[in-house]
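Q: Give me the 3D complex with coenzyme A.
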Amino acid sequence: MRIAQGGKVNLKPLGQVDINQVLDIERETFGDYAWDAEMFRAFDNLPSREILVGFLTKDSSPCCYLGLYRSQRTVEIITIVVEDLCRNQGIGTELVSRVEVSMLHTRRRVAHAIISETNELGCEFFKSLGYQSRIVHIEDVMSDEDDVTDSIEFYKNIHTEPHNRIGRYYQDDLKNFRV
Ligand SMILES: CC(C)(COP(=O)(O)OP(=O)(O)OC[C@H]1O[C@@H](n2cnc3c(N)ncnc32)[C@H](O)[C@@H]1OP(=O)(O)O)[C@@H](O)C(=O)NCCC(=O)NCCS
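A: Here is the predicted complex, encoded as structure tokens.
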């Protein structure tokens, strides 16, 4: 088990040197549905999209990452993954809170994430952070058939008053706090 030291992580944009570790975590987490290197690069190169990787202070290899899409008024958390060995130590909570805090300096007021209804862990996670939910139907464009899967959109209006689980992050120096 990697000890997360209270969930504190350093974040930086995905670099070439981190990609192999990110791919390992991705494959371990999503198996056949894992993104490959080309998909990560393609996503990262699209406008308003970004992959950020997180490091525990003592480590040189990333333990987590998240993919974001920033539109004018919203931030969508496209993917958020914490390495298996580091889960349940508050890292996921910190990643989401960093996104939310960064939004306070902008006109973006809704954070959201679409999670497959079969991903119980992902759903529990966003629920625990005070996100509201609604069912959405997503067409599977990769399938030849008319597959429609039920997913759950988790969303939260970002105000200056945070959900109490992540309140402590909001009290940090907001001026210098950037995701
Ligand atoms: C979802 C995920 C990012 C959470 O990261 P994490 O660092 O473990 O999250 P935290 O430690 O901050 O936990 C926050 C809350 O999530 C919930 N949670 C975390 N692990 C859980 C588990 N195994 N079972 C049920 N709830 C769980 C709990 O409510 C927890 O709050 P608590 O500690 O007060 O009980 C991580 O489990 C993960 O990478 N999962 C696989 C990828 C994934 O499904 N991502 C979401 C869709 S892209």
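A quick observation: The domain at 10-112 is CATH 3.40.630.30 (Aminopeptidase).
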